[in-house]
Model the fold of this input.
Amino acid sequence: ADNAISGDKIDGGTISSFASTGIDDNADQTVLTLGSDESATFAGDVSIETTGGNLLNLETYSITEGTNSIMAFRKSGNGTVGNMTTPTVSGETLGTIEFRGVGTGASFAIGASIQGIQDDDGGQYRVPVGLVFTTGNTTDTYTALTLDSSQNATFAGDVAVGGVNTVGDNVSALVVNDNSSGSTIGDSVVLTVVGQNSSAGDCQEIGFVGWTGEGYKPWATIGSRIEDNDSYKKSALTFCTRGVTTNTTPIQALRLD
Done:
């Protein structure tokens, strides 16, 4: 084709006057297009292979705040290249970063991934997308963490805060390490429950229940009840238990005013 480097020859024109340059594999199909706007478009997969460590730098030099390097994973709901008239839909994977190693099959095998998945209908300028973090073992991969577009985080397993290992028997599912303990009783908080309650009688509770808790009332709770909402709140500490085997709300067993 004219204005293209094809195989071992140049087809038409001169390099200095090219508005864009297409490089094909012996006129079979275009592999790389270099545009006059300094853009490069690859028609297929791109591999960077070396016997040493690979490094990919995206460097930006600018005095403008907010100007930065961007790696964008983009997907259209239309099957024609360049056509963006069909919106992507909820549940569609828009991009994936995979981490692979070589297993016993003598080939690269998936180990973990980060996916951007659309989780609602898109608007004109924004598309709601969540992130799914997947990890795995030698037999399968599992969704370890989901961050949805509503800022909700769902962990599939135990959560360790502060780098505590929770693997094994009789260990905590949630551990909070305190690196700056205080010595004043009532003013040495390491874990805070923040609620939006603002009226006298409103409660915040920590519940104890089996499974995920969905559809079941807690077996017992420890909570705080607002007694007076004037200025700084006056509250009571409550302990509730359930003395029956039915799915009923536990009742107050102890109250500290």
Notes: The radius of gyration is 29 Å.
